Amino acid sequence: MESWERIENLINHFKLNKNSFSKEIGINNNVTIGRILNEKRKASKSTIEKIHLRFPQVNKDWLLTGEGPMIKDMPQIEHVPEGKVIDTDKLPEKSVLVIPIKGRGGLENAYYDDLLLNELKVEKLSVKKASSNGSKWFKIEVEGISMDDSTNDFDGSKYSLCEGDWAYCRSIPKIHWKNKLHFTSVKVFCFFHNTRGIIFKKVKTHNPDTGILQLISLNKDKKLFPDFEINVAECSYICNVLKVLSEF
Asked: Over the stretch 132-141, which tens digit does the pLDDT of each residue have?
């Protein structure tokens, strides 16, 4: 931190302005302090002495060098980093099948046959922990605005899907479809529906006895995007949406 920055911090700490701070330390005009701040100059030793004489609680070493706490006996705050660098070489990898909007039609017409899925472009994705071997991973381009909950006054929730986003999805093994889907913890699902195509929706209810799912859109316009029902038996894949990449 430069000398002028330390002076600026002091002024802010004592809730003063340049003029009142100058008067406090015995300088009749604010030219000296103004030049230090405006021209980003180093404060002279005489100015430091005046500051320390008026504010003895200020650490003189900090005034001169920036070392130690600003105020005497004020403990140094240990800054905890808010992120960490991840060594991706040590993370497990998954093969991700890439499905762009323009490539959906053929897959839907073939009921998502594995022969066509295996012809898709494959990307490698590093994941935090290995998932079930019975899962497939997909990177799917989002089409439409049914899951976009942004409005003129709201930027949208973190679960919002905008057209053109890419959603990373992990399939749920079919053996688990007879159990109630974890729709309270999973906010958005992706369904490979054999007649409706690939759809992204939130699950409102699931009857494991009949397999009926009630699906809802995040978009608030229920005239355009009403709730509807499907059956798990009508799907080739049901996936959790784990991550969304947006273009800005």
From this structure: 667 899 999 9
Q: How confident is the model at residue 167 (pLDDT cuts 50, 70, 90)?
A: very high
Strands (E), the chain: 93-99, 122-126, 137-141, 166-171, 189-193, 197-207, 212-216, 228-231, 235-245
Q: Which of 106, 97, 237 is nearest to 172 (CA)?
A: 237
User: Is the distance from CB of 198 to CB of 220 less than 8 angstroms?
Assistant: no
Pairing of strands 235-245, 197-207: unpaired
Angle separating helix axes 45-54 and 31-38, nearest 10 degrees:
110
| Helices 31-38 and 3-13, packing angle to 10 deg | 120
Q: Which residues of 16-43 are buried (b: 16+ CB within 10 A; e: fewer)?
A: eebeebbeebebeebebbeebbeeeeeb
The DSSP annotation for 53-93 comes to HH-TTB-HHHHHH--S-SBTTPPPPPPPPS-----GGGS-E
Cα–Cα distance for residue pair 114/195, rounded to 1 Å: 17
Q: How many CB atoms lie within 10 A of CB 200?
A: 24
List Cα–Cα distances, 1 to 5, 43, 51, 66, 242, in angstroms.
Answer: 6, 13, 18, 6, 42
- Measured CA to CA, the distance from residue 107 to residue 85 in angstroms comes to 38
> Order of strands across the sheet with 189-193?
122-126, 93-99, 137-141, 166-171, 235-245, 189-193, 197-207, 212-216, 228-231
